[in-house]
Design goal:
heterodimer, A: 193 residues, mainly alpha, Fumarate Reductase Iron-sulfur Protein, Chain B, domain 2, 2 domains, 12 helices, B: 294 residues, alpha/beta, Glutathione S-transferase Yfyf (Class Pi), Chain A, domain 2, Rossmann fold, 4-stranded parallel β-sheet, 8 strands, globular
């Protein structure tokens, strides 16, 4: 892939790109393991955060690829527990954001994480067109993408009866402004690494 | 001057009882809000998960509109929106080039970006010292105050309370006659945006939270975030199928508890919209609930 070539031609590791783009320096990590110990998702991760930090520190392309292919980076809930506990104040959720964008760009998304990506995509598509989240539209979009047709079918009527489900979207008055923002953001550098 | 109000998408949809109870309580306390006109979605976790620039651009437009409409402060009751708006302001204040780029895109000045405050910060300011005298039905229950993640983390963004053992909601509960409990899951994650793509994760995380609250004798869990509420209330079944237990503990927004204590009508507070019925056993508030029109 073209960007992967650029990155090796310049002899930049993924950690170097991360530092350049986000200012987060993972070389500071000294493997205390506090982030993994407090992570609510660590038990389900193939590599908990402290492990993928070490993998990236080595700068080895095979390990970098393994991180980008991992389920872990998609399981991160951005709850910020790791960040507030890190003795070196490394913004780990920001690292995860960077890795997800890179993983998506390079087509390395873990098969079992694809529904999480489909959900995020359906969410953003909803905003792109209406400016505000249209919950029902987004869930239908997600069902089409994930083919989870039956999920939550029994929840919906209860929500509707309780007045929690809008049948029609709320739109912003200037949908063009939204499209402009999306277009500009599509040129985001991180999404290109 | 009126305070700006950024309701966010959840409050306009699946969590409308949060907005209803908030408006009812603030009206009773004579606090006026003015909704930011034409606000848009903050992008929530979806935006920052996939595109960092978008995660700044989306909240920035709403902040720029709020500035143009003359607001210096915005009430942002959803913890996720609050975190995104506060993080965006911080990022743009530190990055002049990006701020100017976005200002050009949205065709607004973006010179004095308004400050976002969460609901607990506002309540801290507006709840009167002599509130106890004004209570018509003190909320005399044992409660577990659940803050979740984004109201208190990270401190440099939210500039509010303590990251690990916050106290502000507990203090507010004491003011309305409740007994906030000391418990272990005040700031543990509920599973947030995984409600749809990984409901099983939400079940596992919420079951831990409910288990701890129940085992310490809590009669209600109090929240100030639509995601926390929907995962603990709407997704109750996921928690139950994870742990194999039945939980009946209701989840109340902080504004619903205050509203009941002030003697406001249960329906006005949106209690009928919950999936887990709000049945509170002893105490004066239970009378209000029973007398409420169906």
């Amino acid at each position: 892939m073209s960007t992967a070539q650029t990155h090796s031609a310049q002899n930049l590791t993924l950690a170097d790109c991360l530092l350049q783009e986000t200012g987060v320096d993972i070389r500071r990590c000294y493997q205390c393991g506090k982030c993994s110990a407090g992570c609510p998702m660590a038990a389900e991760m193939d590599y908990p955060s402290s492990v993928w930090m070490r993998m990236l520190q080595t700068g080895r392309p095979d390990l970098e690829k393994a991180v980008l292919k991992s389920q872990s980076i998609w399981l991160c809930l951005s709850c910020e527990s790791c960040y507030v506990r890190c003795p070196m104040e490394i913004d780990i959720p920001r690292v995860a954001d960077f890795l997800r964008a890179a993983s998506k760009r390079r087509g390395l998304v873990h098969p079992r994480a694809r529904n999480i990506l489909r959900f995020h995509t359906a969410f953003l598509d909803s905003i792109r067109y209406t400016g505000r989240l249209y919950e029902m539209g987004m869930v239908v979009d997600y069902k089409v993408r994930s083919r989870k047709w039956w999920q939550d079918l029994l929840t919906a009527p209860g929500l509707f009866l309780r007045g929690k489900l809008n049948l029609l979207p709320h739109r912003v008055k200037h949908p063009k402004a939204m499209r402009k923002l999306f277009k500009w953001a599509a040129e985001d550098k991180e999404a290109r690494i | 001057m009126k305070m700006g109000y950024y309701p966010g998408c959840s409050i306009s949809g699946s969590s409308r009882e949060y907005g209803e109870s908030l408006l009812a309580v603030l009206r009773a306390l004579d606090v006026e809000l003015a909704e930011v006109e034409d606000w848009n979605c903050c992008g929530a976790s979806a935006a920052h998960n996939l595109n960092h620039t978008l995660s700044l651009a989306l909240p920035a437009r709403s902040l720029a509109l709020a500035e143009q409409q003359g607001f210096q402060e915005l009430l942002v009751p959803c913890a996720a929106c609050f975190s995104r708006l506060a993080a965006t302001r911080k990022a743009l204040m530190a990055d002049d080039a990006k701020r100017r780029q976005i200002a050009d895109l949205v065709e607004l000045p973006m010179k004095n970006i308004p400050v976002s405050i969460n609901l607990l910060q506002l309540l801290q300011r507006v709840l009167p010292e002599n509130l106890k005298e004004k209570l018509r039905a003190p909320f005399d229950y044992k409660v577990a105050c659940y803050y979740g993640c984004l109201l208190v983390r990270p401190a440099e963004v939210v500039e509010f309370d303590r990251e690990e053992d916050p106290e502000e909601m507990d203090r507010i509960m004491e003011k309305i006659g409740a007994a906030p409990l000391d418990w272990a899951f005040k700031t543990e994650c509920c599973g947030a945006g995984f409600s749809v793509p990984r409901t099983d994760v939400v079940g596992r995380l919420c079951a831990r939270i409910l288990d701890d609250a129940v085992s310490r004798g809590a009669e209600a869990v109090i929240v100030a975030c639509p995601m926390c509420h929907s995962n603990l209330d709407m997704r109750r079944q996921a928690s139950e199928s994870h742990s194999g237990k039945k939980y009946t503990i209701p989840i109340l927004y902080v504004t619903q508890a205050i509203g009941l204590a002030l003697g406001l009508d249960a329906k006005q507070l949106g209690l009928q919209r919950h999936i887990v019925p709000v049945r509170l056993s002893a105490g004066k508030s239970s009378q209000i609930l029973e007398n409420a029109p169906a």
